[in-house]
Amino acid sequence: MNFFLVILIILSTFLKISAQDIRKIAIWNMKWLGTNSGNQLDALENVIHYADYILETGATLFALQEIGATHSIDGEPKCFYLDQIIEELNKSISDPSAKWYYILDDQNKQQRLAFLYKNDLWELSNPQIISPGSSFTYIRKPFLVSIKAKGTNTEFEFDFINIHLKAFNDADSRSTRKNNFIQLSTWLSSNNLDEDVLIAGDTNIYFSETDVYQSMSNINYKYLYDAERTSIYSELLGERFDRYFSSPDLNNEIESARNILGDTLYIDVIKENNPEQIIWFSRNISDHFAVVLNIDISAEQ
User: Fold this and answer.
1) How does pLDDT run across 145-165, given as a tens digit for each residue?
2) pLDDT tens digit sequence for 36-67
3) Residue 203: CB partners within 8 Å, gap ≥ 6?
4) Contact 48/89 with Cβ under 8 angstroms?
């Protein structure tokens, strides 16, 4: 057999094995889901489209923003609209252990944060709202969970902090966001979290805010960048609000995925390209596109 063909087969096999260890994580602002904000059509009419978009991302773990709480079960906050989306996602899954579930925070009023996940791939524990400082108002407190990857031959664990920072482009809002990061950085430095930490969500940071997360860089957290827009507001088409920040140790798993998939695929905005579809999406689904990050769950072993 040709020597180069043997090498090609070996490399192809290695890449397939490596690709099996890649898991996709997503962040998505769902635009006031479950809240009659007056700026979108009834979410119930589009449940199947929400579910289709979630599946289109390929992600199995989501940090979601702008989720309303419309009822509770035994005191646990629930969102009726999110329940309907979960039902749609699970309609063809017979094994309960492989179904989709979510955890919703209980403090952020109608701007709640949630984690959506496939139960056969991820284990979530110790959910808690954190209070890094006074710049986080009562409806903008981060939501933290501990994550463990399920599956064979994996020990990958990390702490995931879901954030939704102050909106708008005025001086006070910019100052609040900067203080958010200063206080969060201080909180991270003084709390006993896992060495692998991922912080992500709708930051509302404009491109012109070049120093807003300097405090994160000061504690060696890395900003993970994708240049494509995530906001669909007509006047904000160039803005990249939805962002990831990685602890130094977690960056090893991210860089491993990046080496396997390449610079343009390891982090990706899942967007529509047809202008008419973008308008329909923004009116019926969300004013944000989801952003997917790939992580190699085997990289630390």
Assistant:
1) 999 999 876 789 999 999 999
2) 554 455 667 889 999 999 999 999 999 999 99
3) 163, 165, 177, 241, 242, 243
4) no
Digit-coded pLDDT (tens) for 170-196: 999 999 999 999 999 999 999 989 999
CA–CA gap between residue 183 and residue 106 (Å, rounded): 22
Residue 97's alpha-carbon distances to 100, 119, 122, in angstroms, are: 9, 6, 11
Domain 24-296: which CATH class? Answer: alpha beta
* Domain map (residue ranges) of the chain: 24-296
Compute the average pLDDT of residues 111-136.
96
What radius of gyration do the chain's Cα atoms show? 19
Task: Look up the pTM and report it.
Answer: 0.91
Hunting for tokens 């995530």 — which residue is that? Answer: 230
